[in-house]
Amino acid sequence: MSEIGPILVIILQLIFLEGILSIDNAAVIGALVSPLPNDKRVEWPKVLQPFGEWLQPLLGNQRNAALRVGLLGAYVGRGLMLFLTSFIIHNSWIKLLGAAYLIHLAFDNLEDKSGGGSEDDEQMRPIKVQSFWATVLTVETMDLIFSIDNVIAAVSLSNKIWVVMIGVAIGILTMRFAAGIFSYAVQKEPILQQAAYILVLNIGVELVLSQVWHIEIPDMIRFGISVVTILLTLLYAHSRFLQRFRFVLTWLAQGIGIVNEFVDWLLIPLRGLIGATIAIFRTPSEPEAA
Q1: 8 Å CB contact between 59 and 65
Q2: What whole-number distance in Å separates Cα of residue 75 and Cα of residue 165?
Q3: For 179-218, b where at least 16 C-beta lie within 10 A, e where not — what string?
Q4: 3-class DSSP state for residue 197?
């Protein structure tokens, strides 16, 4: 019984920690699922349609379903991460790969998003809309990358795996609830979509700083950066004075576009090699009719 008090304190610390570290995750997931219609059912492959019909009452329509499927994936992913913590800690390249993915995702969605400064373009143009399953895949990938730091920080608080899992599990539930709120907030404030991808860029850069230059940013400062990022984007959306400096955003967005084009150019040989390899192993198709 004497251990119950300290264990409860650790669990509360883990929930608080998960909330602090997951503000970016909640914002990004909310932005990702917000374009999905909440009045359309999930489209399942033919083979899985009976299974989909059975799950429909539980999952709901597309936007809610993406959050709920993401919740299940988050539990599976965090559980896997907990058991691989030692491996992750001793292999910095995993974090660097995650950072590269986050920076690429942010650049892909932020290039040329500031528009040309016309009166008709008060807000940045919308983020690319993905299909339901593509959105779910992106949500799960993002959650796995974001969870690397969360899990390592959680394990540092306790060496009892079951205590860590309880704290992280409650934290994930809280984070997904926040993501649902954020997805509805995006409907009212579309600029929050761009804010979410700026947060993705922030996390990617923070991972690079910690792994390459060993610059560790305290959790509370990271939390503060995230909150300030969201507040500044909202302030920009409603301030005509700040919108006079749109040319700076245009310049940055064009620079991001140039970087993306350069990276795409570098990857052309790799993509060609992958395409040629797939073509070799692909089953020959029927000859085309004349």
Answers
A1: yes
A2: 9
A3: bbebbebbeebbbbbbbbbbbbbbbbebbbebbeeeeeee
A4: helix
In the block, tokens 């390459």 appear at: 212
Q: Which pLDDT does position 232 carry in this prediction?
A: 92
Are 95 and 148 within 8 A, CB to CB?
yes
Query: Which pTM was predicted?
Result: 0.66
pLDDT in tens, 150-192: 676 666 566 677 777 777 777 777 777 777 777 778 878 888 8
Which are the contacts of 208, defined by CB distance < 8 A and separation ≥ 6? 96, 99, 103
How is residue 203 written in tokens? 């996390």
Output phi, psi for 214, to 5 deg.
Answer: 55, 40
What are the backbone angles phi and psi of residue 3, rounded to the nearest 5°? -85, -15
How is residue 98 written in tokens? 């995650």
Comparing CA positions, the residue from 145, 152, 149 lying closest to residue 103 is 145
Q: Are 113 and 125 in contact (CB under 8 A)?
A: yes
Q: Name which of 134, 116, 142 is nearest 200 in CA terms.
A: 142
Beta-strand ranges (E) seen in the chain are: none
Alpha-carbon distance values, 213 to 54, 153, 207, 216, 218 (Å): 51, 19, 10, 9, 15
Q: What angle do CA 37, 65, 31 make, to 5 degrees?
A: 60
Exposure letters 99-121 (e unless 16+ CB within 10 A, then b): bebbbebbbebbbebbbeeeeee
Helix (H) or strand (E) holding 282: none
- Give the C-alpha separation, 102 to 42, whole Å: 27
